[in-house]
Amino acid sequence: MSNKQPSLVRVANKKSVDRLKSLVTEMIDDPEHLSIPYLKSHDWIAIPVESSLHFNQLDTIQISRAAAEMGCEEGFAILTESLNNVGNCYKVRLSPTGLTEFSNECGHFNFAILPKNGSFIILCTLEEYFLVGGPKKFIDKYLGVNISIEKAMEDFKAFAEHNSWPVYIKSHLLTISKKYRQPASE
Amino acid sequence: MLARLLIGIFIGIFLLTSSPLILPVEGKGGGHPPRIKQKFNKAAKPKASIKSGSRTKNTSKVRRGKPGSKQSKSPLSRKRSSSRKSSGHSLKASKKPLAKGSKIHKGGKPKRSKKIGKKLSPKTRKGLIGKAHKRTKTKSHNVQKTGKAGKPNLRKSKLAPGSKKNLLAKAQKRPTPKPQTIGKVGKTGKVKPGHRKSPPNSKKNLLGKAQARSKSNQRNLGKRPSSQSVKSSDLKRKAKERRETKKVDRKLEKYLGGAQKIRSGKTHQYTKVGGVKKAEKDFLKLVGRTPIKKHGNGVKSATLSNGSKISIRPYSGKDKKGPPTLQISPKVGKQIKVRYE
Would B165 be classed as within a structural domain? Predict the structure, then answer.
């Protein structure tokens, strides 16, 4: 039954879109950063991950696995920038297929994915990374058994420090790496 | 003149008197006219008719040889013996069963008839051939009816492949069409010609229905062109996609050829000189005639002919101080990012 439902549906209900938008606004500072106070208040952890407009196959598997751990099969993708001719809100199946479809449709724009209850958030940016924020068990499930949060942070730092990056991108990525390390270390 | 006339009359008389004199040499019938010869021929074919189980009614009329010598025998054997006796020197030929395909040219009898035909008028010969045909036809008919006849000796026939006789032989060889079995098949699969209609939900009827359904399904499958057409349309679509991808690749090579690859992680990262103007120019060239969506703040997007998505941002970064970026996400493969510095 669940397979017959479409993976990505545009949400037209303004009330629900507004509610979700307000929730997202609460969770993020801007299209590229999560709100540190929100993370602290909810005892959440956020890790930056290398992006590819937005997810590749491995990313979709990791996200769907973590979402299933939280008991979420569906989520909502909310546009985090003000643009015309782009859907503000999409209902996304948190399965590899659904997330791939989302990437194909919304890969060129900044979006945030979160479930209806807001138990976690994935902030998709166009700046070479996306942020996975949520409780520790969600992050652990996302990373899997073999990778710890510290290891994931180190990996991202190594990615940011790569010599091939232009200076402005490198500095930006290093800032991100530092910013989200703090809540984890505290 | 008179002498000629006399000679002619003499020849005519001689011919008239000589024709009955020849016939007794062929068979011991004793100078019977050709008509009786025909009957004799009919009688000379007993073996095949006996084997096939068909009765040669005409033979009963012909009683040759010495009457009374073997009269005590059964009528069937009597027929045989009488025919043998009557056949005379051509008995050997009559021993062999008449081959189906070689009714006239091969086998014993036809040869005999040929021999006879030498002395007979063509009309009579024709009549003989016709009768021989008829006989074989009745024989084959009886074979079909009873199914007891031995295998016809078709190897002996050396007829032309497309000849009428050969075609006839082939037609005889061909098995008779089976009756339709749907709905009338028993458990064993044999057709019961006069069997009663079983009740609608009986096992037999259900089995028959199931078989009929499967047959009709098979027929439908054969008729259904959708699977083939779907396959062909899929192939066409894929071929078109491949063509379009090649076209787009060529365009990318052409317009982004000067770009420098800086990194190849989850995405292919390129840098190119030229700033916003060059970025816009490249974007328009790559997009071509496909419609462009304008999203405001200089952000534009489009879908390329092969389904790949392309977008341009005149800035990047939170503070909008970063260089313009051209982003291409192909259907298959890694995404491409080109920064115009």
Answer: yes
Q: Which residue has the tokens 């074989």?
A: B136
Q: Which of residues 160-179 of A touch B (CB under 8 A)?
A: 162, 164-166, 168-169, 172
Which chain A residues are Cβ-neighbours of B329 within 8 angstroms? Answer: 53, 103-104, 107-108
Quote the pTM value.
0.56
For residue B293 the two structure tokens come to 């969506």
pLDDT at A109 over 90: yes
A186 versus B125: the higher-pLDDT residue is B125
| Angle ∠(B57,B92,B102) on CA atoms, nearest 5 | 70
Q: How far apart are CA B253 and CA B257, in angstroms?
A: 5
**Comparing A182 with A55, which gets the higher pLDDT?**
A55
Q: Which of B36, B34, B40 is nearest to B123 (CA)?
A: B34
Half-sphere CA count of A76, side-chain side, radius 13 A: 23
Q: Within a 13 Å sphere around the CA of B107, how many CA atoms are in the beta-carbon half?
A: 26
B2 is a domain residue: no
Cα distance between residue B327 and residue A54, in whole Å = 12
> Does B114 lie in the same domain as B83?
yes
Report the domain count for chain B. Answer: 3
Do B303 and B273 have their domain in common? yes
Residues B142 and B272 in one domain: no
B325: which chain A residues are within 8 Å (Cβ-Cβ)? Answer: 126
Q: Helices in B27-121 by DSSP H: which ranges?
A: 34-43, 46-52, 75-87, 91-95, 108-119
- One domain for residues B111 and B213: no
Token pair in block for residue B72:
């005590």
Q: Locate the domains of chain A by residue range.
A: 2-145
The partner residue sitting opposite A50, judged by closest CB among B265, B297, B311, is B265
Give CA–CA dist B249/B305, Å, rounded.
11
Residue ranges, chain B, pLDDT below 50: 21-111, 113-117, 143, 145-152, 154, 156-157, 179-187, 189, 191, 194-195
Interface confidence, given as ipTM, is 0.89
CB nearest B327 (choices: A32, A53, A86): A53
Which tokens hold the place of B334? Answer: 């890694």
Answer yes or no: do B139 and B156 share one domain: yes
Q: What is the pLDDT of residues B93-109, one digit of tens each?
A: 444 444 444 444 444 44
Q: Tell me which of B260, B261, B263, B327 to substitute to probe the interface with A (most A C-beta atoms closer than 10 Å).
A: B263
How far does chain B reach from its first CA to its final CA, in angstroms?
134
* Nearest residue of chain B to residue A108 (CA atoms): B311
**Quick check: is B72 in a domain?**
yes
